Amino acid sequence: MVATLSGRPPVVLLGGFLKLTELRNPGAAFSIGGRSVTILFTAIAVGVTIFILRMSSRIRSVPWAITLGLLLGGAVGNLVDRIFRYPGIFRGYVVDWIQLPHWPVFNLADSAIVCGGVLAVLLAMRGTRLDGQRVTVEPDPAGQPSEPMQGTGASGGDAAAGKDGGAA
Fold first, then answer.
1. What pTM, to 2 d.p., does this model score?
2. Which residues are catalytic?
3. Which of 102, 125, 133, 159 is the most exposed place for a label (fewest CB within 10 A)?
């Protein structure tokens, strides 16, 4: 994209709904923070990458694999720009090039991070763990939530047993 878009006016597509324009972003997403936080976001990207790589051996859930793959791809994509682009190692500018109406210019790595983040929140809200199991909370007979149980509900092993271990 850099070679194609650099030094030229925006390419207008889809009747103006989409524009391709090169923008060098020294800050965080949407150019927040400017150059002063570039090294901070580089460190965060390195940390996220290491965390996801360490967690990858535990993933048994396709939705979590997709989610963490999006986050990893986005973090590494922007990290490559931070490492290898001007003005220098770990201070480089991220190249943003996609512009929608009423929205800041972004790139595919930013999109992957946002989509992965939304999916992570949804999976966490559903109680889906990395191993694919769902964490459920079953109410006790008095109607109060009891301890979280692992499993998928009806087939969750001891889920049918009461607190005292007897049959429900």
1. 0.76
2. 96, 110
3. 102
